[in-house]
Amino acid sequence: MQFGRYYEEFEVGAVYKHWPGKTVTEYDDHLFCLLTMNHHPLHMDVNYAEKTTDFGKNVVVGNYIYSLLLGMSVPDVSGKAIANLEIESLRHVAPTFHGDTIYGETTVLDKTPSKSKDDRGIVYVETIGYKQDGTVVCIFRRKVMVPKQSYGEARGGEQPGRPEPTPRG
């Protein structure tokens, strides 16, 4: 099973539709807020959200949505990455609420071979996240350094370091 892509496998204009989606629960949102010490009542306090916000309910913290989409994109985009180089832009376009399901897709915008090492290159992508009704909620662009096939072959192929099972005796 392939995880990520080599530089040669990326084509400018290609679109990768990440699957499956993820339904965001109140627990997911609260746990992420607690782990990251974001205790804003917009995310944590139903009474506050109902009485003081335009939405009338809790809004899922945006960085969770970004993190979720980034994770969804790893098998298609950065699973073989040597380095994540840059998040060029990040926009939260619309709110996400508990119970919404998030889907993502990534478009390859550009790719350039490394100027200093011939076994890698830079891939420039845009990922969009959208809800079950098609509403776009998040868009970000990033640059990832990915290996060429020669890099992978020099390090043991598709799954380097994977041990062989030993029969029980």
UniProtKB/TrEMBL annotation:
Pfam families: MC_hydratase. Gene3D superfamilies: Hotdog Thioesterase (3.10.129.10). Residues 150-169 are annotated as: Disordered. InterPro entries: HotDog_dom_sf, MC_hydratase, MCH/BMMD. It comes from the Bacteria. Transmembrane segments: none annotated. GO terms for molecular function: lyase activity. PANTHER family: BETA-METHYLMALYL-COA DEHYDRATASE, MONOAMINE OXIDASE-RELATED. This is L-erythro-3-methylmalyl-CoA dehydratase.
